[in-house]
């Protein structure tokens, strides 16, 4: 692997919950080998990260600095970072036609239920976010622990897709 960290983009529809959690977790545990980003296929106007997501991240000791909801269009710009891996974390975004990603990064889909969906109590909603954080953390820990040769471009897509089964 090169000296540059592996750039990973997490996609969801609104970029307010799952993709934000994944970005923060991977940047926290990535040990400098990974640089995570997140975006949405169609974030709402003035979309912000879900406050419950930010709370569970902070409670877990994971920085929320710089987290913001944004469109995936930002990552198609000429000055955007080159992605090595693009992972959809919601079924809606996985079914959409993605923009062209320069460099043809590896892709994978890791399905997670939307923790912001539902009409439960505040405690139930908080627990849904906590469970999503734990599930993402477990899978991202496996990604981070992969040996360098499994992260080479030629093998990255297979490695990322295998983790979807974890």
UniProtKB/TrEMBL annotation:
It comes from Polaromonas hydrogenivorans. The keyword Oxidoreductase applies. Pfam families: LMWPc. InterPro entries: Ptyr_pPase, Ptyr_pPase_sf. CDD domains: LMWP_ArsC. One of its GO terms (molecular function) is arsenate reductase (thioredoxin) activity. Residues 6-146 form the Phosphotyrosine protein phosphatase I domain. This is Arsenate reductase ArsC. It comes from the Bacteria. Its EC number is 1.20.4.4. One of its GO terms (biological process) is response to arsenic-containing substance. SMART domains: LMWPc. Keywords: Arsenical resistance, Oxidoreductase. It is an enzyme of class 1 (oxidoreductase). The keyword Hydrolase does not apply.
């Amino acid at each position: 692997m090169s000296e540059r960290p592996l750039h990973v983009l997490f996609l969801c529809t609104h970029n307010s919950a799952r993709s934000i959690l994944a970005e923060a977790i991977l940047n926290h545990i990535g040990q400098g080998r990974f640089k995570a980003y997140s975006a949405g296929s169609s974030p709402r106007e003035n979309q912000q990260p879900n406050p419950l997501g930010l709370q569970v991240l902070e409670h877990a000791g994971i920085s929320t600095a710089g987290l913001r909801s944004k469109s995936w269009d930002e990552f198609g710009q000429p000055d955007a970072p080159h992605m090595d891996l693009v992972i959809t974390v919601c079924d809606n975004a996985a079914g959409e036609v993605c923009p062209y990603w320069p460099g043809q990064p590896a892709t994978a889909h890791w399905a997670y239920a939307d923790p912001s969906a539902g009409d439960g109590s505040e405690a139930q909603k908080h627990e849904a976010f906590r469970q999503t954080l734990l599930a993402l953390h477990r899978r991202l820990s496996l990604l981070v622990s992969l040996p360098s040769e499994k992260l080479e471009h030629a093998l990255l897509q297979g490695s990322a897709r295998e983790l979807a089964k974890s």
